Amino acid sequence: MKQQILIVGAGFGGMWTALSATRLFDLHGHNEVEVTVLAPQAELRVRPRFYEPDAHRLVAPIGELFDAVGVKFIKGAVDTIDAQQKRVGYIDASGTRQVCCYDKLVLATGSRLAVPDTQGVAQYAFDVDQIEHAVRLEQHLKSLADLPQSQGRNTVVVAGGGFTGIETATEMPARLRAILGADANVEVIIVDRGEKVGASMGAEISQSIAEASDELGVTWRLKSSVVAVDEQGVTLGDGQRIDAKTVVWTTGVRACALTAQIPGERDSLGRLHVDAHLKVIGQNDIFATGDVAYAATDDLGNHALMTCQHAIVLGRHAGNNVAAQILGVAPIAYSQPKYVTCLDLGGWGAVYTEGWDRQVKLTRQEGKTLKTQINTVWIYPPAANREAAWAAADPLIPIA
Hints:
Blueprint: E1 3-8, H1 12-27, E2 33-39, E3 43-45, E4 59-61, H2 63-69, E5 72-82, E6 87-92, E7 97-101, E8 104-107, E9 111-113, H3 121-124, H4 131-143, E10 155-159, H5 163-180, E11 187-191, H6 203-216, E12 218-221, E13 226-230, E14 233-236, E15 241-243, E16 246-249, E17 253-255, E18 272-273, E19 286-288, E20 293-294, H7 308-327, E21 340-344, E22 350-354, E23 359-362, H8 364-378, H9 386-392
Parallel strand pairs: 1-2, 1-8, 2-5, 8-19, 10-11, 10-16, 11-12, 18-20
Antiparallel strand pairs: 3-4, 5-6, 6-7, 9-17, 13-14, 14-15, 21-22, 22-23
Helix pairs in contact: 1-7
């Protein structure tokens, strides 16, 4: 009977793990291992773009890609992991409970928006964390055109001034005017605890964020937080009231809760501590990748962030190394010392930075051109051709 590598999750980390594992087995002429991906759908959901309109289009089918490289796909949602018995429990496409056993497990289940218990958030706020949520927001925005003119109808409050909050907010003026009319008096407000516009992104990049915000008409309520949300708006910590029919919550993510079912140390975001080869520390047969892995990117103390930039490379290494363990060949230590940021700033353009200190290299249209290339080409799956897919899955590909 073939050994089983089970990859839970078909996002950036999971997809690239599957491609990289089958690549290494092919290089060694080894066909005695079955590589299986278990996930709710055989598609890559392009989550970095969910702040954009038409979110329903932001998926890429990967069933044919998996077929091309010999990956088995199981449609289901995992809810239990038994590390001792080496099996997972899941609900299949028909709603029936099933069990899948493994020899090696790679957890690649990603992250979810950390929804606080702030009054009214669960009932009245929107988010762009999952595709269904982004579609719900879009439907809501379109419905605003059916409401009577009011300042609240024309106002969007974005809670959180981090990466997702900024991209969502700077895209919003154009989205609102496309629905309410080019001359609509719209207001977009970012509520953030920072003392300076874009403070969480770093000093240099914050200058571009402030400039873009001014040009686009996005205002910031700094040193503030939302303490309550209702159907008509938000209440801030200082008691101020903002009337808004649309509130978008973007205040951070946590690793998928399944990490708690695997014995091991976790960081404050729920990510499993892994060694240089992405094996969960203390677990010989379990690897973690993407947003569920707390992985060092270099020798300077930096760790992978919950971004597709890191998940793609983490996936390539996790797949290679889980296959290498079975083959008895040397693994490849994960290393990703180069860190870049490309932040979309709506109609202003985009800002591209390099380094963990985010040194600005491109702005406005030059930055936007690069951002468009990243969003529409670079992060999408390779063609459903085994040679092309395996070439792209090589963990030693130079990182641009």
